[in-house]
Amino acid sequence: MRVRGAVFGYGTDSPIVDDWSAEFHPGTVTAITGPSGCGKSTRLYLLGLMVKLTAGAVEIDGQRVDHLSDAARSRIRAWRFGFVFQDAALDPTRSVLDNIIEASLYRNQSRREAAQRARELMDRFDIAIPPDRRPGQISGGQAQRIALCRALLGEPDILVADEATGNLDPRSAATVLEAFREHAVTGGCAIVVTHDPTVAGWADRRISLDPLHEGVSA
């Protein structure tokens, strides 16, 4: 995955992202770091095709994808991406199982197959709760692992995470990080936005947005 000369801003404000270029490779976990307000999360949304660039391009496998219609970008997100957000972003009105398999609806996957895969992931991440329980009835660590199951359900090529360990205890954080590592080992691309130096040091490479230390390091 590659982004070239990306520019993005809201309205007439100065761009939050200005002429940003970066590459992300299969088999690698990349951490994007930097101070608050530097646009880390915005860059993740650009990479995940959730917002459209003002200028520049996003490419996957050498093909430009940022300029496509909303429907086309939604299909790419459904088939090729898995997302993990800081607050888990679970629907409180739906069961844990339904939260996990929701994205499968956009891939035309049968509910039975999706539910079976969801239960396997719940077992893998030691989520020992009834699948019909609601998000309001589980802990924060369980909720984040549920979000991880949702992200991995479709075996995505690209896994993106926004401060996914920020609110977790050390054990739950280690579980999430190890899942990113396993995703990369199997040939996936993992991109993690973080302010935690421990998480950044754990990644294969780091893209720093700090003006004092800007650049890419292994």
Report on this structure:
The structure is a single chain. With 218 residues, the protein is α/β, with parallel strands linked by helices. It has one domain (25-47, 74-217): Rossmann fold (3-Layer(aba) Sandwich). Helices cover 34% and strands 22% of the residues. The protein is built from seven helices and ten strands. The strands form two sheets. The chain has a six-stranded mixed β-sheet with strand order 6-7-8-3-9-10, sandwiched between helices. A four-stranded antiparallel β-sheet has the order 2-1-4-5, covered by helices on one side. Strand 4 (55-60) and strand 5 form a beta hairpin. Helix 5 runs parallel beside helix 6. The protein is globular and about 45 Å long. It starts with a strand and ends with a strand.
